[in-house]
């Protein structure tokens, strides 16, 4: 087969052992809502090369599978059609160590490797120095205790206990407590396995408390 300049040639040793991943590649790309051109650009491939992978006319190398798995928010095992291990649906409170990042304290409230990231978060008092965030995905917050100030675009909302907000996180936003003692909220984000500090949480390095 012809080699496309700038692209990694598949390892001949893997071509005979890899199952047919073409249907999985196509299905996962479509599930992520990516065009062939957009996915190819993120993977550093040409659209024609990715098309050949998706039609089975070319076998991907293992490094290429790793890159595509990261783009599609999945694992190489899923790309290869392997059954994922059974996950415990219950997250026990005593197994969730609090982590602090820039004054924010959060606990995992959902399982790892899911399409939703679920956290219980203590939000510090809002200041003008708080960082405005913009990133892909959607967010949902629900206030448990205290009051939360949500700056969303040009609008500012104050949320009381029991109030929720659901918004596109490409909209510039800033979250902080409107009460001096901070606030407690539930936080759900759709971007799979995003580091918590890269979302709306503190601007420092996360560390265990």
Describe what this molecule looks like in 3D.
Helix content is 21%, strand content 25%. The chain is an alpha+beta fold and 209 residues long. A hairpin with a 2-residue loop joins β5 (148-152) and β6. α3 (36-43) packs across α4 (47-54). Residues 1-18 and 192-198 have low confidence and may be disordered. It holds the Pfam family Cupin_2. This is Helix-turn-helix domain-containing protein. Keywords: DNA-binding. InterPro entries: Cro/C1-type_HTH, Cupin_2, Lambda_DNA-bd_dom_sf, RmlC-like_jellyroll, RmlC_Cupin_sf, TransReg_Diox_bact_type.
Task: Kindly summarize this structure in a few lines.
This protein is an alpha+beta fold. It contains 6 helices and 10 strands.
